[in-house]
Amino acid sequence: MSAARGRRGGSGAAPSGRRRSTGRPLSGAASRPVPAGSRSGAGIRPEPRRAVRRTPRAAASGTPRRPLVTGRAVLLAGLVLVLLLTLAGPVRQFLAGRAELTRLAAEGTALDHRAEQLEEELERQADPAYTVRQARERLAYVLPGDRLVVVVDGEAVEGDAGTVPEPEDGELPWYEALLQSVAVADGDEEPDE
Prior knowledge:
The protein is mainly alpha-helical. Helices cover 49% and strands 6% of the residues. The chain has a domain at 71-143. The protein starts with a helix and ends in a 7-residue tail after the last helix.
């Protein structure tokens, strides 16, 4: 037997997958229990192979792969989400209140400016010279002794501001003609022809 061992390379254990010199496979020999202390087949019997599955990434790096999402990460994300949802309402109300304050401040400034304009207008209207000027411009008010020129249909008509023009012969003043037409309409007088 020592000669057979020398031909195989001098090792007492057979490489896995090879057969013994008797021609029987090694798997049959592993099914029998070997009593303790006997040396008959201890050096020849190969150890069974263990199947080890590794992912290509873990095998390449040499370190075991950690999961992408851990329980702590999920808990932390949940707490952050609850915190954001809790703070969303008050933050929105705060921002809406700030916008309302800005709008009211702008409105108050505009009202203050309008109040200043109205006070200036009241001061102008309290001035008698301003009142006379506005009466002349808007109402065509003429002081006694002033000369009024009114343009009607492109013709200039002149007259004294303090006098009423005299009616021509046979013509009644406009107010008498109006009263006469009312009296005729009521049937009190007969029309003059």
